[in-house]
Design goal:
By secondary structure, the chain is mainly α. Helix content is about 80%, strand content about 0%.
Length: about 80
């Protein structure tokens, strides 16, 4: 069996300049920040929705079910 270094050495990567690597890293980080901000907004919205339902008289069981359904959808969207 080959070790990790041997496997990696067999892959032919094109040479990249530092500028190209920095641009790729910046693009990745911008995408990550955008996804993080979107998730934060969804979770914040979920909190407002739960407070609204609580004020309308929802019981704990209904709130937990609502929360689990919504947070599951948020996590599914984030993963895919």
């Amino acid at each position: 069996m080959k070790n990790f270094e041997e496997l990696i050495s067999e892959i032919d990567y094109p040479e990249e300049t530092n500028e190209e690597v920095e641009i790729k890293a910046e693009v990745f980080l911008n995408g990550y920040r955008t996804a993080e901000d979107w998730q934060r907004k969804l979770i914040n919205n979920l909190s407002f929705q739960m407070n609204k339902r609580f004020l309308q008289g929802c019981q704990a069981k209904e709130l937990i079910w609502f929360y689990n359904e919504k947070i599951g959808g948020i996590l599914d969207d984030f993963i895919y």
